[in-house]
Write a structure and sequence with these properties.
The complex is a heterodimer. Chain A is of the alpha/beta class. Chain A contains 8 helices and 9 strands. Chain A has helices at 47-55, 77-87, 103-113, 115-119, 126-136, 152-164, 182-198, 222-225; strands at 6-15, 24-32, 36-40, 62-67, 70-71, 88-91, 170-174, 202-207, 218-221. A 5-stranded parallel sheet of chain A has the order 6-7-8-3-9, sandwiched between helices. In chain A, strands 2-1-4-5 form a 4-stranded antiparallel sheet, covered by helices on one side. In chain A, helix 3 packs parallel to helix 6 and helix 6 (152-164) runs parallel beside helix 7. By secondary structure, chain B is α+β, with helices and mostly antiparallel strands. Helices cover 52% and strands 16% of the residues of chain B. In chain B, the strands form 3 sheets. In chain B, strands 1, 3, 4, 7, 8, 9, 10, 11, 12, 14 and 15 form an 11-stranded mixed sheet that branches. Chain B has a two-stranded antiparallel ribbon with strand order 2-13. In chain B, helix 2 (15-49) packs across helix 11 (328-369). Classes of the chains: A alpha/beta, B alpha+beta.
Chain lengths: 230, 416
């Protein structure tokens, strides 16, 4: 795959949950490949909606979304889902994990769903790769535990492992630190940077907490790129 | 494959509700299949009890009671027929063989049937099976008795045992104590009501009642040693089974017997009379099936409730699966799979339970109630029930699945 200069390029995007009331207008959003980008905006400013557009879970009424070299507005729904699953890792604010699976099963999921994620593994088997990553994040003793028995901080680290397994090109984190204590945030961020570097992934980090901002190479204020409607 | 695994793990994590749901579906399938199998089992059992008999003949009366008491040992004969009439038809040119049956006495709840050698010779069940002796041989002497296998088993009787027969069918205080009978033979198991009978000779029946002409025991009992066949004259029997030389003559012979001038008689074709019995029982069968069907509906609704109420707490899970690249259609499939798995497993358990129960109750039912219950295999109706349960389960799964599908598309990543 040819590496596009922009990991994400949104142009003149308009989105609304129904056609008459657009909630988000983005004139232009550029995320350069390989960068760590901090995207900030107050709560309720449409950050998660924007991420829905980038991942292709949502489709805009107007405009184009080029993500990792493909205009996802021109793709079919299953193709967009495949594109997202095989090329992107996603970390939510909390409750990232499938509650009825173990740590091992959760982390392995992307590799089971997508061949490309399997092909990009460092180890030869999914199990070995999961063990490698989970150990990298210091959670090896929890491998076969039910995820409900883990603390929030541990769950967030498992979410990192699942986001980066099989080296996706783009990792998106939506307020992943807001459920953590202040002193755990720095550690979490450090870990996230390290594994993203190892996976050579572009990182889009969304937060309303600007105290984390200085650690990122690029900053984008949602206010500057969009004319919020909601 | 991943979706199937997810469905399985998801159900397993909700073991308690999943288990209850599976149990309720299994229970309803058990009822549905059980009712159907018992219905067919009794039909096969009843039909297998008597074969190669073209007509059953008794005193004038209802055809169903005649068949039930003459063949299945259920109910009583209201009237006897004269031995002369029996003799007339036994020697009829169109008749191949006859088996006389004389009933009315019992021993510890088992019926005593007086008959003759023709019984051992000609009686056939389940096609062409004839009676075999497990031990001993036919009753020939006046005070000889042959036991059905269930009688020997339950009373722990053996050859040479002396038994005392009671007058009438209830355990009676009027016992033929003066004339004990000796067990000379035990029949092999037939899995028909034959197993529940005690067989003596027609002479023996007469001898037992010698001096009982006024319905009570004689004041001075006649010792066994003083009774001889030459003193005994068989005057009446209860019924007889008959086989014609040619099947074609059955209807003519039936008409001839039914219009026999010297004595009012009834001749029935066993298969036709059984059909009447099934049509009577058909209504009960329909009623039971309807109740089982209602139980099935309840079972499926329990499943729907369980899946539907879990939807809200699973919105977050759906959003996570979407970020992992599962299509909305796969989310849909996940919910359909869950409901299909529950109903399929429930149906399988119910089916297995139905056959286990049938297998377990078969012998006790046969022994206690004398109802022959054959072990019957799969039938189109059972296959139809199973398919209906799984399809209904999958279809009900559409309701939560459509909700989940819409959540997957509309919520995007905002869920929870």
């Amino acid at each position: 795959m040819i590496t596009a200069p922009e990991a994400v390029y949104l142009k003149n995007v308009v989105f609304g949950y129904d056609l008459r009331t657009p909630v988000l207008r983005v004139d232009e959003l550029v995320v350069a490949t390989g960068k760590r980008v901090f995207l900030y905006g107050p709560s309720g400013s449409g950050k998660t909606t924007l991420l829905g557009l980038i991942t292709g879970v949502l489709t805009p009424q107007q405009g184009s979304c080029t993500v990792l070299g493909k205009d996802i507005t021109k793709m079919s729904a299953p193709a967009r889902d495949r594109h997202r699953g095989s090329e992107m890792g996603y970390i939510f604010q909390s409750f990232n994990l499938i509650p009825y699976l173990t740590v091992r099963q959760n982390v392995a999921l992307p590799c089971h769903v997508h061949k490309r994620r399997r092909l990009n593994m460092v180890a030869h088997t999914v199990d070995k790769e999961v063990e490698r990553l989970v150990a990298r994040l210091g959670l090896e003793v929890y491998l076969d535990r039910n995820v409900k028995k883990l603390s929030t901080g541990q769950q967030q680290r498992v979410a990192i492992a699942r986001a980066v397994i099989g080296k996706p090109s783009l990792v998106i984190a939506d307020e992943p630190t807001s459920s953590l204590d202040a002193d755990r945030r720095a550690d979490f961020l450090e870990l996230l940077f390290e594994v993203c570097d190892e996976a050579q992934a572009t990182l889009v980090f969304v937060s309303h907490d600007r105290s984390l901002m200085e650690r990122f190479e690029e900053h984008i204020a949602l206010r500057d790129i969009s004319r919020g409607c909601a | 494959m991943t979706v199937l695994r997810l469905a399985y793990e998801s159900l397993r994590s909700r073991m308690f509700t999943t288990g209850l749901t599976i149990f309720s579906i299994a229970l309803s399938v058990l009822l549905l299949v059980g009712v159907d199998r018992i219905r067919q089992g009794t039909q096969v059992g009843f039909e297998g009890t008597l074969s190669q008999t073209d007509l059953v003949v008794g005193a004038r009366g209802g055809s169903l009671p005649l068949l039930l008491y003459a063949v299945f040992h259920i109910g009583t004969a209201n009237n006897d027929i004269s031995y002369a009439s029996y003799h007339h038809f036994a020697n009829h040119p169109a008749v191949l063989w006859t088996i006389p049956l004389s009933m009315g006495d019992s021993h510890r709840g088992f019926r005593v049937v007086a008959t003759d050698d023709n019984f051992y010779e000609h009686y056939r069940y389940r096609g062409n099976h004839n009676l075999q002796f497990a031990q001993g041989s036919r009753a020939e002497g006046i005070f000889d008795a042959v036991l059905g296998s269930a009688v020997a088993n339950q009373l722990h009787y053996h050859l040479g045992q002396q038994i005392v027969l009671s007058h009438g069918l209830q355990a009676s205080f009027l016992k033929h104590t003066a004339d004990p009978y000796t067990v000379v033979g035990i029949l092999a198991r037939t899995a028909t009501p034959v197993d529940r009978g005690i067989y003596i000779t027609l002479w023996g029946d007469e001898a037992m009642h010698l001096g009982w002409e006024n319905g009570a025991p004689p004041l001075t009992a006649i010792p066994e040693s003083q009774i001889h066949k030459s003193d005994l004259h068989v005057k009446t029997i209860s019924a007889f089974l008959l086989r014609t030389r040619s099947r074609m003559s059955t209807l003519f012979l039936q008409r001839e017997i039914n219009t026999y001038q010297p004595e009012p008689l009834t001749a029935i074709i066993p298969a036709f009379t059984l059909e009447d019995l099934w049509s009577v029982l058909g209504a009960a069968d329909v009623a039971l099936s309807l109740v089982s069907g209602a139980v099935l509906v309840v079972g499926l609704l329990v499943m729907l409730t369980a899946l539907y109420t879990s939807l809200n707490e699973r919105r977050r899970e759906i959003a996570v699966l979407r970020t992992l690249g599962l299509h909305a259609r796969q989310i849909f499939a996940l919910f359909i799979l869950e409901s299909s798995l529950i109903s399929a497993v429930g149906a399988a358990f119910g089916l297995a339970a139905a056959y286990l129960v049938l297998f377990a109750i078969r012998i006790p039912v046969e022994n206690r109630y004398g109802i022959p219950l054959a072990m019957v295999g799969f039938s189109a109706r059972v296959a139809y029930y199973m398919a209906a349960v799984v399809v209904a389960g999958a279809l009900l799964g559409f309701i939560p699945a459509i909700r989940a599908y819409r959540n997957a598309l509309v919520d995007g990543l905002n869920a929870g």
